[in-house]
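haha ok so turns out i had the wrong file open the whole time. this is the CORRECT one, sorry everyone. sequence first:
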Amino acid sequence: MKKLIEEQFDVVVIGAGPAGMMAAIRAAQKGARVALVDKKEEPGKKLLMAGGGRCNMTQDENNIVELSNLYKNGRFLLSAFGAFRPGNVREFFEGHGVPTKVEKSGRVFPVSDKGQDVLEALIKAAKENGITFLYKAHVVDFSLNSENEIVKIKLKKRELYPKNVIIATGGMSYPATGSMGDGYAWAEKMGHKIIEPKPVLVPIKTTDDWVGELQGVSVSSVSISVFQHNKKQFSDSGDLMFAHFGLSGPLALNMSRGIGKVLAKDESDIKLVIDLKPYLSAEQLDEIVRKDFERNADKKLNNCLADVFSPKLLDFLFRYSGLDLEKHAAKISRKERMHLVNLFKHLEMNLDSLFGFDRAMVTSGGVSTKEIDSKTMKSRIVKNLFFAGEVLDADGPTGGYNLQLCWSTGFLAGESAAKNL
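then structure:
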């Protein structure tokens, strides 16, 4: 029988995603002998999916109080954000050959628009700091001593003897990348409370057949109001994309959290009302339409309003309105004009459901932050255990916020674990 390989490390990081890699790098920079363990054959698969493959690395916001206010359990994250701010993230990657840029809404991307460049910078930094990579390594169990310290990690083909352990296994979103909730089970077995994991930042399914006609159409600065039994529940604004199943894009993803709460109480009769021009009152929009019709009096209706909406969206709106598209603008009555304006301000659809973990960008829930020291990311239950990233019960909106959570908590956990020697 083949003998198990036995190895000792100062810090063992479990999970080679963004939080785990940053934790391993920081611990190694502080002088620790580090092993990075992952059950997949290569690191960072989920990182390559961020920002549609472009990798929305962080958010251009260095006021950590304002930053933390946008997160679930944001106060818990203050120390981590203070240790490694969004500006530090940009400095780190630019120092490793990945120049960055700021786009709309403060979203930070690599100039190359390639998430692969971000991943390669992390791998290069890890190798430069002498980190031992252990891929296709499945954790079987942890052994703790009488003082509630982890003394051994059992893998299928080896045993690791760590002085400190960092669990950075992610949540349950995009399970094909390896995020299947392993860390929750380990943490719970070691005495930690797990807040029920739920999928958030997910696309929205609607029941309306016409939505498919707008597949791929993106609209900026629109608002959506959520109604149930004709009573308004909440609203939000941002950029939206129509899909064959319903709605996607930043606005839909961010609203999915609130919609999930509404669904949890009552799943019936939920409508979404899109205002395509929320910064204009109905009267102001009507004036714009009226003047356009005057300028284009001799044109057919479907040749008007070219400056108001994109061609594909406009074509749909005219057809959906039910008005006679062959009618010239000069012949459009005020009632017909107001019908159009009302459609532009109140495009209504019926909610079907939300996607699950298979399409969720992030998991809400996880290891309770009440049982973790926010200044170190260290467990208050297991003496040499630390947590980082999405495994924690903390999450933020779309736009680079959740990767920032990973970088910051990973950095702080890695530094703290190295100091815990």
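The two ends are 35 Å apart (CA to CA).
again sry for the mixup
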